[in-house]
Design goal:
alpha/beta, Rossmann fold, nine-stranded mixed beta sheet, six-stranded parallel beta sheet
Length: 478
């Protein structure tokens, strides 16, 4: 089976978050199951540098305001549209962190080209199914339903429903869709155009990145205004837990960490721990090092963490934080760090190598999110023997077994789980972590149990493969 995947980022070519990791890892996991994935992504400067010339398989004289080409390099398709994607800044925003004002046009271009490809625009290639990711690719399904690919089944994966791609109704005439598409059962959303909403409306199947998140987004608290549509289409909604690339994230061979180790011998973590202390300017002490690798946003609970740092330090812990995001939250964290030199170190950036180092050298990782569709950070942490301390929400609760008395006695505890959106709950979780760390043996048992857990893509890929095949069979019978 040939599947066309469409996404705005893909590791290792371009990454701003976990979406890229999933898009990059899933094709390899599906290949042994007889499913070949071709992935279409935008031609950002970093992507074009990585792929080189490529083979031109499609051309556009005017793609929403300028010429464009589709380049093919093995199983990768790149939309080379310089007027949309070659610019200083990030994938979605300018160097100052502001969204590009023409994001609606940029990702409409990506989606319309994806629909063309699904409809046969590339010679000798016609996918059996199209799988789109998040709002940036969601309009693909609208273009398919109103074009030549209307019979091909489409799947959309929600990685974070908080990001929806909502735009003013004034853009609709430029999108190239028929007037009938601007309707409640089309792309119209509260008087404007909703990209994610359109994808959910037109999809043959909707997936989210964990079972718990699939249930949570059916509620007003976490549905972000789309819970009504999701409940109406509930029979098409599936929660499939993300996996991780266990080759990319493997402490026994990871080239980005100083010392390799495995679950049988964790002594190598000591030297990695010393490297964390040097990198973040932490004093060498006996207490645990808590790590954070995160976007610094309200969703991630970073404001709650900032308030809890004095307590963390008073308990004998230290903090190494890597991330960037909301300027006010960044400043609050930096201000607190300034009060505790040698106890708190912060790097307001994103660095793949440092993130691997933190997983391999910190004692615990903090994920105090208010909501978290899946979370990959805690899965990497489990793989590396870095004990997760996480909020009970979405995929965090699905993947971490709390160190309650029964779980510790049974030897199955893998971390500490606390109530979400509560500073008090976070402080209590920190105290539990410090206590277990000082006890020694229970902490070591948690590390080993986490490292033995299987969060590879095998099971999840099987779920996707079964879903794809069911949709294709249904389409062939129609």
């Amino acid at each position: 089976m040939d599947v066309l995947a469409v996404a705005s980022e893909m590791y290792p070519l371009i990454k701003t978050g976990g979406l890229a990791d999933v898009v990059g890892a899933l094709p390899a996991a599906l290949a042994p199951l007889g499913i070949s994935v071709t992935t279409l992504i935008p031609g950002y400067p970093a992507v074009l540098r990585a792929v080189g010339k490529g083979k031109v398989v499609a051309r556009y004289d005017d793609l929403f305001g300028g010429p464009a080409r589709v380049l093919r390099v093995k199983s990768l398709l790149v939309l080379d549209a310089p007027h949309h994607f070659v610019r200083d800044g990030g994938a979605y925003g300018d160097p100052g962190g502001n969204d590009w004002p023409d994001n609606w046009r940029r990702f409409a271009a990506l989606s319309s080209v994806a629909a063309d490809i699904a409809g046969g625009a590339i010679k000798d290639y016609r996918p059996a199914l199209v799988h789109v990711h998040d709002w940036q690719a969601a309009m693909t399904l609208a273009y398919m339903r109103h074009g030549h690919a209307h019979k091909i089944p489409g799947v959309i994966t929600i990685h974070n429903i908080a990001f929806q791609g909502r735009f003013d109704a004034g853009i609709f005439p430029i999108l190239g869709l028929p007037p009938s598409a601007f309707a409640v059962d089309g792309v119209e959303y509260y008087g404007g155009v909703g990209y994610l909403k359109a994808g959910l409306q037109y999809a043959d199947a909707i997936t989210t990145v964990s079972p718990a998140y699939a249930a949570e987004i059916l509620t007003p608290a976490q549905g972000m205004g789309l819970e009504g549509l999701l409940n109406a289409r509930g029979n098409r909604l599936h929660g499939i837990l993300n996996g991780i690339d266990t080759h990319e994230w493997n402490p026994a061979v990871d080239p980005l960490i100083p010392v390799h180790y495995n679950a049988r011998g964790l002594i190598g973590r000591r030297r990695n721990r010393a490297a964390v202390e040097r990198k973040f300017g932490l004093a060498r002490e006996a207490g645990p090092i808590f790590a954070v690798v995160s976007r610094l946003t309200w969703q991630k609970g970073m404001d709650i963490l900032a308030d809890a740092i004095p307590d963390l330090v008073a308990m004998g812990g230290r903090l190494a934080l890597l991330g960037s995001g909301d300027r006010a939250i960044e400043n609050a964290l930096l201000a607190v760090a300034g009060r505790y030199p040698g106890k708190v170190g912060i790097l307001t950036a994103y660095d793949e190598g440092v993130s691997h180092l933190l997983q391999a050298g910190a004692d615990a990782i903090l994920v105090p999110s208010r909501f978290e569709p899946c979370g990959l950070t805690q899965l990497y942490a489990l793989r590396y023997g870095c004990v997760p301390v996480v909020a009970r929400t979405g995929g965090l609760g699905d993947t971490v077994i709390d160190a309650n008395e029964a779980a510790i006695a049974a030897g199955v505890a893998t971390g500490i789980v606390h109530d979400a959106n509560s500073g008090l709950a976070l402080r209590r979780a920190l105290q539990r972590a410090v206590t277990l760390f000082r006890q020694g043996e229970p902490w070591l048992a948690m590390q080993r149990a986490g490292m033995k857990a299987d969060f590879s893509w095998g099971r999840s890929a099987g779920c996707y493969a079964a879903l794809y095949r069911a949709l294709v069979e249904r389409a062939e019978e129609a």
